[in-house]
Amino acid sequence: MGRYFKQIAKSVRANGAAASGSEENADDFLGCINIPLNEIPVVGYDKWFKLEPRSSASKVQGECHLILRLFTTQVPLDTKMLALTGYHNWFKTSIHKWLQIVHERSTDRIRKAVEMDQLEQIQSQTKHSSSAVDVTTCFSQVREFWAQLAWPDSAGAFIFITRLTDVSASKLHFHKHAVCVALNSTEHVRVYLGGLPRELDWRGVEQAMEESCGLEGKEQVNKSLNGQLYNADIDLQRAAKRLITHLTDRMLPELRRCIQHISLSPDSINTDEAVAPLMKYLDDTLVILNESLVKENLTRVLQSLWEVLLRMILDTVGENRGVQVEFYSRFQYTVETLVRFFHADGEGLLLEDLKSGDYKALDEELRLNKCSSFELIEQYVLEKISQQRILKHSRFGRISLKCYYDAPEQRLTVEILHAADLIALDANGLSDPFVIVELCPHHLFPTARSQRTQVKLKTLHPVFDELFYFHVSPEQYRHRCACLTFTVMDYDWLSTNDFAGEAVAPLSDFCWPGRPSATPAGKTLQPVILHLSRQKPSEKPIMKMLEARTGDREAQEFVRKLKEIEKSMEEE
After folding, report:
1. Which domains, ranges and CATH numbers included, belong to the chain?
2. 46 CB-near residues (< 8 Å, 6+ apart)
């Protein structure tokens, strides 16, 4: 007990000296009290004690009033009872304070790293900046401290893990916005971020929360942590995309010059010569990109560059409609060459990635523009046949008919029975419908004339029961696009007739060996029901291609008829 008071006196003396800055202002030793523990009575002391000197040479005087009582407790011998439990809870406040300090200092450290950013050649394969190393090192130190801390309560660690994840994710804000030259650095940090679930033992936290709070607790942990990580990853991907866009934008002027060179090249020169400037520029650019970018970013840049080229060629083709076929052949060759370049025998982009999106639209555009006008018209008819096959209901009504072919006479009989649920095109809420029947396309049936039914007044459910005959040879009906077109019109006494809808039926459905002919047996055929459609022809790319061919009489006649139908729709 005496030593205890001596230590207090010594501490007081030392503190006094430190505070004053000199020994002169230090407190003086006044004395001490020695009380043997075994002499303290059960009822304790409540008395004055005389102060004792430090040595026999010391002169001490004075008394100190003390109230002392000694308490004792019998300690259990069971070691389990002696073990400390819940001691980690004593440090919760300190951990929260530590997280706050981590948040502040990591912000300052990352900001400073970005300001002093430079290319870091740590290894020969390293292509990211020094700030990326500083960022991940900062996060690694925090993660290592957390691992050493070994917080025993996994369920209670949830809030700390959430804060640590937030610290790592939120501090990336400074890195992605300030380092415009660091596409590789962004990827470096993004890859590190993906390892946080393993480094911070998310699975252990989820299992602990499931044990303590059930499945709902596990889902809460999963949703919270993964949400933070997902948002940070999306943020970094956006930053990388902006950097890639910035990179490809700088290449646009030269790419445009190369595409224009292909576009303006005379038909007489070799196609390889027309494409050569573009391929040389891409070769030189790829060498630089390959040396400067990590593989993941190189793939992203190549994909972006491919999309830019596709859109550029697609726009160029769209601006040059109605030109010679050789123009489209050059660009088709260009696209094929570019596919081989970007695929690089399997070392570059995947073929399925190359041949998707705008590639399909461009390939179809080039293929169709290389076709003759007759081939385009046939393609237009084939699309209508395909759409008719999948049309199972329509708000424009339907038409019922029978068709049978007399092979010896090469005669096709068309029996139009009735229509139902037609749209009202007159002010009285009804229509005056009639049907135009014709063989299409016209260049396959140059001598065939269109035929029409009688007009049925003031009805949306007309009954026609009329027969029509067409001469069709086997060579004609075997053609894949040979068909019958049924156009329902509303008769108008004062102006042009209104278009109510149309349907098509391929001749292959009626003209084939074994099909009942125009005999009494053929009359027993079940009617065919065709649903009507009303599509604007101008919305189809083929229509624009044909319209651009101003010097082609067949193309212009086909376009004229379609425009008349579309005009009648607009005047309703």
Report:
1. 2-68 (no CATH), 104-241 (1.10.357), 252-369 (1.20.58.1100), 375-570 (2.60.40.150)
2. 66, 67, 68
